[in-house]
Amino acid sequence: MIQSHKELEVYQIAFKSAMAVFKVSKGYPKEELYSLTDQIRRSSRSVCSNIAEAWRKRRYVAAFVAKLNDAEAEAAETQTWLDFSLACGYLEEGINKKLFGDYDNILGKLVNMINNPDPWLLKR
Questions:
Q1: Is 2 left (phi over 0), alpha (psi -120 to 50) or beta?
Q2: N or C: which end of the chain has fewer CB within 10 A?
Q3: Rounded to an integer, what distance in angstroms lies between the CA atom of residue 43 and that of residue 48?
Q4: What is the full DSSP assignment across 5-43?
Q5: CATH number of 5-118, picked from 1.20.1440.60, 2.30.130.40, 1.10.10.10, 2.115.10.20
């Protein structure tokens, strides 16, 4: 039985992916520091934080699903920033494809949890 959000596979993948985003974004130009760099780091980290919040709100299906929806939106936003990174020439195509695929995987797992929340909810 899972005791912590850190044990969720989707959280582990999201955390690893956010760290990969952080690593590659270190190479972005200084003029992007307060725009693209900040945005992609924020959205990628927000996926993890919303999963953690969802886990703590699993007493109530609506609250749990709402936070998972937030995580889903942040994952999609991260994909958008990845596309901008590629288009601006800050990210190699292979790295973009890998990270984009990781976020597709995260999105799929989140949608499955959203569509079937019952196994994750606390029983009263």
A1: beta
A2: N
A3: 9
A4: GGG-HHHHHHHHHHHHHHHHHTTS-GGGIIIIIHHHHHH
A5: 1.20.1440.60
C-alpha span between 54 and 72 (Å, rounded): 12
pLDDT, one tens digit for every residue, the chain (124 residues): 889 999 999 999 999 999 999 999 999 999 999 899 999 999 999 999 999 999 999 999 999 999 999 999 999 999 999 999 999 999 999 999 999 999 999 999 999 999 999 999 998 7
Burial 81-90 (b: 16+ CB within 10 A, else e): bbeebbeeeb
